[in-house]
Amino acid sequence: MRKSSLINLVASVSISVLATGVAISAQDKYSLQVPNGLAFSEFRGYEDWPVIAISENEGVIAAILGNPAMIGAFREGIPGNGKPFPDGAKMAKIHWIPKKQEAYPGQPTVPGAQHDVDFMVKDSKRFADSGGWGYGAFEYDAASDVFRPATTADNPPQENDAKCGYACHTVVQNRDYVFTEYGKR
Fold this sequence. Notes:
The chain has a 6-stranded antiparallel sheet. The chain has helices at about 1-25, 70-75, 165-170, and strands at about 50-55, 60-65, 90-100, 110-120, 135-140, 145-150. The chain is of the alpha+beta class. It is about 20% helix and about 30% strand.
């Protein structure tokens, strides 16, 4: 009886140590920050935001999500009414590598491995020199389940500051630097 109890104790301790090691080694994505730029933590809870739109570009599919301030602005007609988005409006764009779901009728294209997540936040004072918007991009490695700030080696290349998306977004300056269309519902 004693030997059995000892074996159970050793097994329990081993499992506890293993579980603790896994928990410690898991990445806290909210601790990440683009050097001199946005922090992942500024977008805590983005996974639960409503969908603004979906898109496909350069071989990846995306869901563009918005916080309540962003969704409210779109519903008020911004940017089509000529007004700017309010400070505090945020968007998250999650990209996936598409895959065909062979087993489903019609073999639809669905999200496969996650590719990255991009963020935008409107803060006229903090980002006065980039149209009032701050940008951040975080690449995702599915094999290790880890995010990292995007760099100039990524596609598209990302500088290490919150203005990394500004150059691309100047072509939609008349839409307050926002490409995304809010679909009728």
